[in-house]
Structure prediction request, 336 residues.
Amino acid sequence: MRAVNLTFKGEGDDLYQNRLFSYLQKQLHVPIKEMKQIRKKVYKVRAEGLDFILKGFSSYYQFVLQKNVLTSLKREGFQKAYSFYSLEKEPPLLFEQTYYGCLEWIETSKNEFTFYKQLDRINGLKLLSHFHATNEKLVDQYAGSISNFNQVGRWQERTISFLNNLPIIGYFVPKEIINEMLSWADWSLKGIEKELGVFENGKKVILHGDVAHHNFLRAKNKDIYLIDFDLISIGTPRSDYLQYANRILPFLHWSFQDLAKYKELAIYMNEKGFIYALAFPTDLFREWNRAIREQTYLQPAKIQQLLEITVGQFHERHNFIKELKRFIAMENGLSW
Prediction:
């Protein structure tokens, strides 16, 4: 019997990883040499002649759905995403109530993708547009399998969570700023309800749902890939673009004019519904809710980050909201 060099790198439950390693050795066609935890239930695996990502899924349905969607995307011509490997002797891989899939390992560039760089922001939008244009053909095929995205419902839930967390948030953030944030959310949601057709009608695509910078990966060959499809849903492209706009606005110093220079966004910035939606402080509510849920707000580095996006960027964001309100007033024929 050949000896195996069992090496684990990264933090995590060593006992769990040892059990998982033993399970995989029995279930996969390829002998494993090394496992490195990337995040919870995601590992970089080095096997004989092949590196791959081992990723856990909450259900077999989610695993199969993502595998099928990615396979369909590749078939339709979208190649800038990972593939699923079939390495199991007898699928599925089920270990301690988690289903695991083997994903293509994409060798990354040392020059990471970042929204800080203008060229990356442009190329990220181009890739997202290509993703939408390709998967539009798949919407009917997956309409019964992928849920519809409810923009207003998602933000109403986020607002309720934020309101429930105010006793803690109020300890760190001045009351005046909190009241202003809530007024932005109220103005935004009321405006979206008036223009709800913008998010319910028209072209539908498969939304990525999490267009954060870390889900755009620059490969060693300099190509950019889209990764992590856990939050896919069906809706209008606006929802992905709204999230992308919210992610890049801090790097544009919350400039309405600079945001409108991106052609993929400019086509929506004459729509009142899209303008109302840009005002919703989704990033602030999301990050505060997450920090309180995970209790990371007790960490000095985390609270500093939260205060930077909440208080440090307040003046720029306040001026941005004023620009949005000025636009709406002009569209409604009112003086400002």
